[in-house]
Amino acid sequence: MRVPLSSSISIYLFGFIESPSPSTRSLAGGLYPRQIRSPGICSCLEQTEVSLKHDPYWCWQKNTNEPQWMDCCKEPDFCNKDIVFGYAQAQEEEKWPEQMSIITALCVMIVLLAVAGALIFYGRRKRNSGARQILPEDSVCGASYPILNGHTTIQDFIEMTTSGSGSAGLPLLVQRSIARQIQLVEVIGKGRFGEVWRGRWRGENVAVKIFSSREECSWFREAEIYQTIMLRHENILGFIAADNKDNGTWTQLWLVTDYHENGSLFDFLTARYVDPDTMLEMAYSIATGLAHLHMDIVGTRGKPAIAHRDLKSKNILVKSNLTCCIGDLGLAVRHIVATDTVDIPSTHRVGTKRYMAPEVLDETINLYQFDSFKRADVYALGLVLWEIARRCNVDGIYDEYQLPFYDVVQPDPTIEEMRRVVCEDQQRPSIPSRWVACSTLNAISKVMKECWYQHPAARLSALRIKKTLANLR
């Protein structure tokens, strides 16, 4: 009789069992197949008398690895001597769950490692971004911020964010989208922080201030101040975006602002003179911008008062209509009304020594009173007004451009030099006699004198200066 291996047949053997050798006793927690030789007589059981589930014997031909048909012979003498019985199939079935467990464990480990890597990468990107948290409304795909619309201009984006009740600047993802589409064209300035480039975004000119990685604190602080709620003003440099660019070798920190082709007030006055009306417009616009900075707007989404701390002609930009706007807010401080304290940035930079007020030079300034910083700004404003007035052309007469105190200190003065000149000698820039003959120049000279009083409390406020200049226009 011949039956296939898959049938429920088992064989009951009479004979001797050969014990396995010690080296073949275990495999994956079980036994190697025990070989059973039967030199005796075999007989076959009925199918109903066996259960392969409990006694899964299989029959293998000697010297081969393939299963064979089971032979049950009728002759009594050694008819089954070439047949070997063992547990091979049973052990193969037992190995399968173990293999599945190992594969499952490996898959779980791979998934966990991938999730951990993604979290680490996201955490590093978030730390390097230096920007505010990404909020749901920052989506660039929504109808509110159609960044993918090729016809949308930067001014359109700005109007979207300022049309409501105050704004903290463009959403983060919009800023990144703009910054990463900018093509740098040429260098237009350099400073302690890095470089300023003229860039192009969809045909529009923008200014890109690139900070070195060492100046990360200054970059972060300036971006933070520019995004103060309700800060945007026509006489404050228009902020567009902040982003960090990592090319794998070094990290560049970008600050994208409006571009003004006339450059800084310093560059403009060096190359050109102005008439009395232009001088007044420039002076008035600078005073207006400073008054807006110094003013606190009370409300749920109000604006805190801000002091510049580094006001000078190089940090003031000349617009196309020859009015001015104030830039470079990296050293600015904010007044926290709730606690009546000053939010001073943690940066190693200091203001420009030539424009420092007497109380800053001799370190008598009260760092815990916000008005002290506003009065120091007003002192610097008086020096800027003096620079503009020198270049005022009246009847074909004007002076060459010079920095304040050009005649008493070296081009790069030290703190000690400025302290000696300003604090000890109490010197101020000289007023040319020709200014007295011109009513406009004479009025401007009186304003600047009231800006640089030795005693801080005697100086005019930025708002008072703005109103005075408005009456002269």
Structural features, described:
This protein is an alpha+beta fold. Among the domains are: 152-259, Phosphorylase Kinase, domain 1, CATH 3.30.200.20; 261-472, Transferase(Phosphotransferase) domain 1 (Transferase(Phosphotransferase), domain 1, Orthogonal Bundle). The chain contains 12 helices and 16 strands. A hairpin with a 3-residue loop joins strand 7 and strand 8 (194-201). Helix 11 (439-451) runs antiparallel to helix 12. The protein starts with a strand and ends with a helix.
Average pLDDT: 77
Can you say what the CATH homologous superfamily of the domain at 261-472 is? Transferase(Phosphotransferase) domain 1
- What integer value in Å does the Rg equal? 43 Å
The total of beta strands comes to: 16
Question: What proportion strand?
Answer: 15-25%
- How many helices? The count is 12
User: In CATH terms, what is the architecture of the domain at 261-472?
Assistant: Orthogonal Bundle
Per the CATH scheme, the topology name of the domain at 261-472 is Transferase(Phosphotransferase), domain 1
Give the proportion of residues in helices: 25-40%
The N- to C-terminal Cα distance equals 123 Å
Shape by Cα distribution: elongated
Main sheet overview: 5 strands, antiparallel
State the order of secondary-structure elements, H for helix, E for strand: EEEEEEHHHEEEHEEHHEEEEEHHHHHH
The parts where pLDDT drops under 50 for at least 5 residues are: 1-43, 45-62, 86-92, 128-145
* Class based on secondary structure composition and strand pairing: alpha+beta
Text of the CATH class of the domain at 261-472:
Mainly Alpha
Strands in their spatial order, largest beta sheet: 7-8-9-11-10
